[in-house]
């Protein structure tokens, strides 16, 4: 079932990308002699109708853009919280982590620029979260609610113990940008809701006794997550923050209130 869901989601993303590229090519309203030609934008790696800032072109708004892209690359830290606290206690102490990170990017987009300062768009991309667990625990596979086994150090002492999750992300964004400062770059502020569909979960382990191990399971990770995102930057570089409003785990009463917050650096466009 998970394999079929993965294939379905991947196929849907590709159909979305191809469809938006075709749609954008027929509706773009840039008044240029080469209006009907496909363009490749090198600076933000977009195939299709890009949201060009070329001042030499006469632009009529609203203007549709979209296509296949490699943009909004995020790299930063995750800070999972236990009911508002960054410290895991009680029954959730086995999830205590030393370091957690967040990485993601968009591969397709479609939107409308309303005027020189405002645009609305949606996108499809992939996002990864990594939690480096402190405790010598093995998460139990195919078990609901989430449970774990404390490993005997003589059997395995984990030097690496990472819980990972991979999500298809679908942000909806409202972007404001300033006028060009000194004739060059602009200030960008982007905010909106974000949805996610679980593609896979895994636990990656390394110990002297058993070497490298990798186990794939959902581990009761939230199959559908939702939250909000904020991006602020100048030119193409900025910072991001994401907060997921539902729990990280589902059908696991002991993990109720465990949620994820992420922040770091981003390529805004």
Quick recap:
With 269 residues, this protein is mostly beta strands. The protein has one domain. It has one helix and 15 strands, in the order H-E-E-E-E-E-E-E-E-E-E-E-E-E-E-E.
Unreliable segments (pLDDT under 50, ≥5 consecutive)?
1-43
Trace the largest sheet across and list its strands.
3-5-6-9-10-12-13-15
Work out the helix count: 1
Structural class: mainly beta
In one word, what is the shape? elongated
* Rg for CA atoms: 21 Å
Strand content: over 45%
Domain count: 1
**SSE ordering:** HEEEEEEEEEEEEEEE
Number of strands: 15
Say what oligomer this is. Answer: single chain
InterPro entries: Beta-barrel_OMP_2
Protein name: Outer membrane beta-barrel protein
Signal peptide: 1-24
Domain Outer membrane protein beta-barrel: 76-245
Describe this structure in words.
Helices cover 10% and strands 52% of the residues. The protein is mostly beta strands and 269 residues long. It has one domain (75-267). Strand 1 (39-41) and strand 2 form a beta hairpin. It is elongated. The chain starts with a helix and ends with a strand.
């Amino acid at each position: 079932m998970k394999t079929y869901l993965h294939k379905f989601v991947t196929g849907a993303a590709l159909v979305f990308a191809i469809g938006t590229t075709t749609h954008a090519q027929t509706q773009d309203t840039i008044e240029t002699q080469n209006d009907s030609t496909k363009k490749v934008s090198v600076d933000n790696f977009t195939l299709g109708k890009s949201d060009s800032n070329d001042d030499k072109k006469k632009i009529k708004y609203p203007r549709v853009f979209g296509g296949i892209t490699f943009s909004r690359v995020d790299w930063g830290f995750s800070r999972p919280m236990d009911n508002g606290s960054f410290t895991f206690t009680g029954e959730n102490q086995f999830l205590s982590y030393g370091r957690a990170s967040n990485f993601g990017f968009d591969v397709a987009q479609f939107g409308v620029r309303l005027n020189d300062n405002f645009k609305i768009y949606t996108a499809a991309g992939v996002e990864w979260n990594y939690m480096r667990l402190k405790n010598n625990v093995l998460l139990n596979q195919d078990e609901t609610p989430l449970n774990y086994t404390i490993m005997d150090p003589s059997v395995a002492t984990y030097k690496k113990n990472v819980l990972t999750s991979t999500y298809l992300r679908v942000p909806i964004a409202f972007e404001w940008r300033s006028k060009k400062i000194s004739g060059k770059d602009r200030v960008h502020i982007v905010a909106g809701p974000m949805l996610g569909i679980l593609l896979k979960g895994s636990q990656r382990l390394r110990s002297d006794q058993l070497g490298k191990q990798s186990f794939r399971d959902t581990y009761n990770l939230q199959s559908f997550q939702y939250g909000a995102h904020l991006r602020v930057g100048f030119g193409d570089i900025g910072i991001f923050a994401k907060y997921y409003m539902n729990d990280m785990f589902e059908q696991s009463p002991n993990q109720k209130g465990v949620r994820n917050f992420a922040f770091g650096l981003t390529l805004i466009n």
